[in-house]
Write a sequence for this structure.
């Protein structure tokens, strides 16, 4: 036997086996990455609306948290509590809300404008703000993000648990006549436009809230007048 020879030749891996090994490795890496990303998003807290990625808006990924502040009848601030931190205690309201809460605009509705920047308040704006606060302030809510508006707020469907089960805050505002259906640019109805129109029609017929005012001016008309 020649020097350096061997009884067996080195094992050769066929092209098919190589492709199979590469495929298994890719699947393993993909699965591991997906689990890692899933855990990351389960623990990650969105501090402000700017932290919410576009993919969450496009997929309408539900976000849960505490309502820390209500600005008016259609705007609130939410302290995000990710799924694994759902039972985290509500933080105390403090200065600098914009740095640690998500600014949320109720989708589909437009409530009377409160007084700001020296502009007078619209009739029933305080009552609308109070109705929204009575529903959600200092409570846990779920928000389904639909878009972001020109002010960087998350336009979302906001729901909460009540004695009647899951309640949609926008439905309540319309039902009590404390908001009108929003029909401006980038209007978001979350597939409920017909239902929302029916709720508003009922409030109009009953002359509830803004529909009982003698000279009702829509928030859109008010903002146009006070530009």
């Amino acid at each position: 036997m020649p020097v350096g020879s061997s009884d067996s030749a080195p094992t050769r891996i066929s092209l098919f086996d190589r492709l199979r090994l590469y495929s298994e490795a890719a699947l393993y890496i993909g699965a591991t990455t997906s689990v890692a990303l899933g855990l990351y998003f389960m623990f990650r807290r969105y501090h402000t609306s700017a932290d919410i990625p576009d993919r969450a808006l496009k997929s309408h990924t539900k976000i849960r948290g505490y309502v820390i502040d209500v600005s008016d009848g259609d705007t609130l601030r939410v302290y995000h509590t990710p799924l694994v931190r759902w039972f985290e205690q509500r933080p105390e309201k403090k200065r600098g809300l914009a740095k640690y809460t998500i600014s949320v605009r109720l989708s589909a509705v437009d409530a009377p404008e409160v007084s700001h920047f020296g502009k007078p308040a619209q009739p029933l704006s305080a009552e609308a703000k109070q109705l929204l606060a009575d529903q959600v302030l200092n409570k846990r809510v779920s928000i389904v993000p639909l878009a972001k508006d020109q002010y960087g707020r998350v336009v979302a469907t906001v729901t909460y648990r009540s004695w009647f089960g899951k309640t949609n805050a926008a439905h309540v505002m319309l039902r009590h006549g404390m908001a009108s259906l929003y029909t401006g640019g980038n209007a978001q109805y979350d597939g409920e436009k017909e239902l929302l129109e029916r709720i508003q029609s009922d409030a109009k017929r009953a002359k509830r809230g803004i529909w009982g005012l003698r000279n009702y001016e829509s928030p859109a008309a008010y903002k146009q007048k006070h530009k």
